[in-house]
Amino acid sequence: MLFNKKVFAISVLTTLMTANVHAAGFAIAEHSASGMGSAFAGAAATAEDASTTYFNPAGLSKLEGSQILVAGHYVAPASSFANNGSSLNIALGGGTISGSGEDGGNGAFIPNFYYATKLNEKWAFGLGINAPFGQSTEYSESWVGRYHATKSEIVALNINPSASFKVNDKLSFGFGASVQYFEATLANQLDSRAICLAAGGGGACAGVGLVTLGDVTTDSSVSLNADDWSLGWNVGLLYDISNETRLGMAYRSSVKHSLAGTADFTRSTELNTFLTGAGSTAFTDTAASAGINLPETLSLSLQHTFNPKWKMLADVTWTRWSRFDRLVVDYNNPAQPTTTIPENWENSLRYSVGVNYQADSKWIYRAGLALDESPIASAEDRTPRLADNDRFWVSLGFGYKMSDTSSIDVGYSHLFFDDTAINNTDASFSHTLTGTYDISVDIFSAQYIWKF
Fold first, then answer.
1. Which DSSP string do the residues of 315-382 spell out, in sequence order?
2. 279: left (phi over 0), alpha (psi -120 to 50) or beta
3. Are 17 and 26 in contact (CB under 8 A)?
4. 268: helix, coil or strand?
5. pLDDT of 84-108, one tens digit each?
6. Residue 109: φ, ψ to 5°
7. pLDDT higher than threshold 80 for residue 340
8. What is the DSSP letter of 31?
9. Which pTM was predicted?
């Protein structure tokens, strides 16, 4: 009996991301509580605190003295999946996939740290530590989409020293470098009978107990963990058009990660009996690697001051998600062929508008709206690892100055989603997950600023 290794692409590796429901794609938007209150409108132009280190390093020129900012954000997603006829590969016998719909979204806490200091009349320095990508989902090993995903988790850390140079009273320039860590953990179930049939097992599959396609009791499983450190850069410009109007532009580079780690397999008893008899070493633990290009972004922001109390903010941010056109995974095990998965992501835009109201010397109130486009255009390209869709932000917040050296900011956003359809066929066994996600998100943010 010959083992046809070409049919064994691993569905856990069909996408290197987790379901993220608070910024488009798998990006994280939560980089300051002050920005949260206005839906991050004008983020590259406001330069109101040390978080400008991330949003636009040119804004460091607008800060006086030194300050430390510590922020935290709690993201509370609510999602549920309604199955609508998910099906097994018709070429292997077909039928419906058993299992329930589940809420796979996990709450997450996201911290930020920023330091900014004015060096002299021309130069300023900043340091930002935050998480530009991430989130996690986890489903049971018996849910209807188990062959697409059971666990997905991304952890990303960005360390970003930056500097600004004040060209004149109107124009400032900023630049920075990013040292970025990226780690992904992905897991899903494997249909053991489908593996056996695709390998030419025929009647031998039933002989070892692999009788029913999609049988949860004979499922195998796989989990991938891989990580990498890499480098990127960012630049920004800040220009005061007039005393009332300021324009900001910020660019963050793509970061290319070459992830390396392991693919850990658990064969069911039945599958192990068949593969051992076939003399196959497929679906055994092996080193694995994958490359991913994280997208660059370009932001254009505007701040206009109507009077000492009211400011209007606006922003457009472009993200080059088309870099994520496919995922290629290689395995050290020669019995496990390279997997190439088309992703078909598109570039996206985020639009936001907001207002700040300075009530008095101590209190400031903020509000904002945003439309955040998803890079995933079709139900066929959407997976339960990333049940992404366009989302609409409604944000509120306030800031309170406790003293000349201390202040706090609080922000809240609610994200609205249209019903999110999925009709995705996995690359391994051509099982199709069909249904609809119902999603909403609440985000709570707070920060403390110490000036010295």
1. EEEEE-GGG-SEEEEEESSTTS--EEEE-----EEEEEEEEEEE-SSSEEEEEEEEEE--S---TTT-
2. left
3. yes
4. coil
5. 999 999 989 899 998 877 777 778 8
6. -105, 130
7. no
8. S
9. 0.90
